[in-house]
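Sharing a chain and its predicted structure for anyone who wants a worked example. Both blocks are below, sequence first, tokens second.
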Amino acid sequence: MLKQNKRIAQKSLSVRKINNLILGDTSRRISNLTHKSHIWGYPTAVMIEPTNICNLKCPLCPSGNGTLKRAKGYMSFPLFQKIIDEVKAYSTMIILWNQGEPYLNPEINKMIKYATDAGLFTLISTNLNAEMNAEEVVKSGIDSMIVSLDGATQETYNQYRVNGKLEKVLNNVKALVEAKKRLKSPTPIIRWQFLVMKHNEHEIEEIKQMAKDLEVDQLSFKTIQIYTKDDIKFLPDNPKYRRYNITGENFEIKFKMENKCRRMWQQPVVNWNGEVAICCFDKDIEFPVGNVKEQSLLSIWQGPAFQMMRNAVLKNRQAFEICRNCGEGVKLRIEEKNN
């Protein structure tokens, strides 16, 4: 994360943005102390969903396993421009994913370039199974790229990344590393993310060597999120790589849940059609707060619907199902290695 933080500081910080960071953090801290929501300034980061369509069928992903209920589609470039134009003077980071594979949006490189030219740090997460031109990706200016790759062999990889091709992912990584060298570009910072599961935990040491050979910038091992008792079978045997305590057919987050939330004071989610979600765990917009096609993001961010949810979480976060299985306050990445 050192490279990423240094890049953010170099590229995206300004006096106005630093003031906004201070405003946001102060309002969050005061809210936690008083148990009453205060929200000042713009969000410091914005998650934007280029699409909620995916080319893989991952069994624990609502988009991949078909349980995502909301309509599917691609964000238009004009809508993306509208969001960037509003937040560019105050926010520091644009996070380009939610549900779906971002590189399936045919205008994704154009979107990234628009955001990065506006002085925003851009972060994307991808399965790298889409067709791509490595040189175009590097030239788009994408700052940091999380590559989701969970197996050292096709057999292991395909048990979770259903319909995925390991060879294609590895070739795309190699092409990106070569393009970076050829263009003398320090970006994208390539972060290999390995979800540790029962069927792949035996490959951890092999993966470390593969990451070194591929010359990625960082390797991280992350715990998986499960939703039902039937998903327990995916959890690794090593409890180090689990975020849950398991009792028979029951599971619960093994970290203490407090009545506070960092995400709802820092980072809204704008889905492909402009609908704003309170966070990325509200996958089907159970708690609608507005649409940026109809209102400014700031008016939604500071508006009554969002404030009602913040106050509810400060009072009793346990009351909400999406919060009970949330990664907020949970150590998701268990082991990280910089190359």
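Comments welcome. The longest helix spans residues 15-34.
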